[in-house]
Amino acid sequence: MTQETYGFAPAYELPSWPFEPPPELHSPQVVRHPIVIVGAGPSGLTLACDLACRGVPALLLDEDDTVGVRGASSRGICYAQKSLEIFERLGIYERIAAKGITWSLGRTFSGEQEVYSFNLQAASVSKQPPFINLQQFYVEWFLVERILELGLTDLRWKNRVTGVERLADGVRLAVETPAGRYVIEADRLIDATGANSAIRTQLGIEAHASRSTDRWCISDVRFRKPLPTERWTWVDAPFNEGRGVWQHLMADGVWRIDYQMPEDCDTAHISKPEVAGARLREQLGPGVEFEFVWIGPYGYRDHLLDRFRHGPVFFIGDAAHVVSPFGARGGNSGIQDAANLGWKLALAARGTAGEALLDSYDAERRPAAAENLKVTSRSARFLAPRSPAEHMLRRAVVALAARHPFARALVNTGRMSVANDYPPAPLLPEGARSVQNLPLQWTGGAGTTLMQLLAEGTRCLGLWRAPSPGDAAAALAATAALPLRLVAVGGESGLPTLAPDEALLAHLGLHEAGRFALVRPDAYLAAALPQATPDAIAAALGVALARSDEDTR
Predict the structure, then answer these.
(1) Percent helix, strand and coil across the chain, each rounded to 5?
(2) Could you tell me the pLDDT band of residue 488, with boundaries at 50, 70 and 90?
(3) CA 485, CA 461: separation in Å to the nearest integer?
(4) Using one digit for the tens of pLDDT, what is the confidence trace for 492-522?
(5) How far is C-alpha 540 from the geometric centre of its chain's CA atoms?
(6) Which terminus of the chain has a lower count of CB atoms within 10 Å, N or C?
């Protein structure tokens, strides 16, 4: 019997940027930079772009000269609504939407039976869809081009950090380049170098990695005839020896298919074209024509740092936390780390915020990462049962879900990424939740969005339901020295005024006159006042920004 051979599509041609010898190579003195970011992956690029949009320069170092990973292909592909809202504020969302695949419908199978389907669009009021699928290198590519357009970031390719030393007032870095070695200092260092962070290791910070490695084989495939634009998940695929399978469409007509593998598998063997092709042929049947774009193994170990801030050093993205890929909570969480930290660094750089606001990065994002780790670990146990009892439980849940809607919530193939709520903390007495990017309209008829309102400078947004002209004037005076943009919702106060759209009123609880919502620059609701006064608004803003009573006067 003749073995089938499988073709490969032409490899992607990724952009590269030139190495330019840094001025420090010939400097007789050690140069100090206010903000240094190491790692030009999604989280590091998002942070650099966020700072540049706020008018804050930064130095960004990366050991490569391109995007993505050489020899790899899609990597992260599923960008959640909160990340897409961030990308709108940064000015790259339209490119992502035009290039990527928008989806909201998912189907879950057990064997050959569909257990249930879901539509994530139903609960959304955002301008952005629940998810867009796009190969990670495209997102990085768009971020790099936006950073270069903004012109405030010193982006250095082929600059590899080889040494890190804590100082009393900052960090000293040793950097290797093709033209030689140099040393710089930083007031603040952000480690965005990923799961295998050498910076973390050199500083002696324990990652608490899990003992087991979850293994997958990724096949990026292009089909002759298109398949439905839906997320298909198999709990126990018969064509993958009863293990999990995910199937997503990405840009350029390429499908990403993830096959769960045994932990002790031979990664070289499972990635051979003839092995991956036979697996795909068993899934699709003999009549489906396809070609591979890329095949490769993927493995990870969960980890979570005890703290995301160590003095002048901040950890974001995979350098701080790694979770299983179920529900797309990994890369999206790193992007949201960057959005949380960016505005705080910007205010600190301008001298309008202090260490307490920077400390809130850890107080907010570490609980978010811990929640994501808990959620994805439960998904991993459902998809890879470790005992006969867990296997029996999964079989019972799947059987019930096929007949009874109440059981479908128990079929845990990955709780999809959502913006994490933040627990109560000194700067968030009531905790905080993310505010969706509502489409809005000024009373004059012009359209806008919440993200567009937040994109101008680094200010909180105060949305006030129909204040009186006197209260509006007094509030402007009380907050004149603070980073706040006051906007009325309905009424005639003399403030810029939005039309009282029902979605806006319901989402922020602004149905009654006098109610006030304080939205932070990262689109989190910091405070909700039932009857706002100028002094109460100033006090709420002072708490959210960790400013004393003296600072707010």
Answers:
(1) 35, 30, 40
(2) very high
(3) 5
(4) 999 999 999 999 999 999 999 999 999 999 9
(5) 28
(6) N
Which pair of structure tokens corresponds to residue 435? 């505010």
Secondary structure of residue 292 in the 3-state scheme: strand
Residues 279, 282, 284: CA angle, nearest 5 degrees: 110
Q: 151 — alpha (psi -120 to 50), left (phi > 0) or beta?
A: left
Q: How many Å apart are CA 95 and CA 102, to the nearest integer?
A: 13
Strands (E), 377-481: 439-441, 447-449, 460-465
Contacts of residue 86, Cβ cutoff 8 Å, sequence gap at least 6: 46, 50, 335, 336, 339
Q: How many CB atoms are closer than 10 A to CB 180?
A: 12
On whether the CB atoms of residues 291 and 284 are closer than 8 A, the answer is: no
Q: How many CA atoms lie within 13 A of 533 on its CB side?
A: 3
- Separation between Cα atoms, residue 333 and residue 418, nearest integer Å: 9
Torsion, Cα 358 318 327 332, to 10 degrees, reads 50
Residue 440: Cβ-neighbour burial (10 angstroms; 0-12, 13-18, 19+): buried
